[in-house]
Amino acid sequence: MLIFFLADTSGKEMSMKRSVFLPLIIGVGAVVLVASLAGSGNVWKDLKQLDVRFIFLLSLNFLAVITIDALRTRILLENMPFRTCLSNSLWGFYASAITPFAAGGQPFQIYHLVRSGIPFEKAASVIAVRFFSSFSFTIVSGFLFFLFYLDTFRSLGILGDLFFIGIVLAFVFYVFIMFLSFSRRFLERFFLSGPVMKIVMFFTKKSREEVENLARERILGYISTVKELWRSSKAKTIITIILSGAMIIAIHTSTYLSMKAVNPSVEVSLFQIITVQLALSLVVYFVPTPGASGAVEVVYYVVYSNLISKTDAVVSLLIWRFFNYYLFIILGIILGIGRLTKKPEEQSSG
């Protein structure tokens, strides 16, 4: 949310290329660690025997996730070309993958929409509705399925206790985000507080009075736009919530497909994997590494090595992480993050 104030058309460039290498290093290190536990020779052997049918389904699932995410933006912004909505989704996934706590996706999507000609208040409200609908679905379903698998998590000892702490923190964060997204009074108290003001002043290079005026103006416009969006587009908001649930399910379906790609005869059900993933997704929200790298790999291996063989767990981890993480980084690099962060006059001259 803090970068919302920086999502301006003032021409400030954002440097994100340098952030790519850290999550790659952390993620690869975690994979090497879990692969060594399962036996790297067996891992390499299984990688060469993947079932191409499920790899194809994973590719389709990947496209479905991006398409559904872009469709959410297109529904809330009727005049926005679908191609721009697709780009916005890709930039969001890319920024989440390379920023601490995976927190950069939404601010960067706002930045992208503003650069695409959408007023800041409208862009912020649309991204807020998208994020809140996804997060609400994840929190509610994740908590229910955490209770469903409570005995399983208890059997993990101290790691299970950490999962419980993660659930509690997720709920606290959810309440905080709810107030931060929809309460004008809370927004003003938060953004006009001393520490936040100093951070914004540092990045914007503006005086305290300028920052206060900008903050009040943005907050008032944002809250008004959110209320107007709900009053005039209740059906669209409800459809967005439904699509958000479908997107989250599609994201976690990739875990099941990854396991089947490694071993088609593995005895796990789609429902079982999706519900476990929903519970686990709450735990990694507070890992400070870019895209939760390192923790995601370790948690995946610890939990699923109790459901399938250790080798299958490691290989499916590699496949799953590629389609849900590294592929977004690769696409971000290919599309050229630099093109987005150039000033308009630089783009036209190029």
UniProtKB/TrEMBL annotation:
Q: Please provide the record's keywords in A-Z order.
A: Cell membrane, Membrane, Transmembrane, Transmembrane helix
Record InterPro entries: L-PG_synthase/AglD
Where it sits in the cell: the answer is:
Cell membrane
Q: Which Pfam families match?
A: LPG_synthase_TM
- This protein's GO CC annotations: plasma membrane
Which chain regions cross the lipid bilayer?
20-40, 52-71, 91-114, 126-150, 162-182, 237-257, 269-287, 325-341
Which membrane topology describes this protein? Multi-pass membrane protein
The superkingdom listed in its UniProt entry is Bacteria
Q: What is its main location?
A: membrane
> What name does this protein carry?
Integral membrane protein-like protein
Which species is the source of this protein? Thermotoga neapolitana (strain ATCC 49049 / DSM 4359 / NBRC 107923 / NS-E)
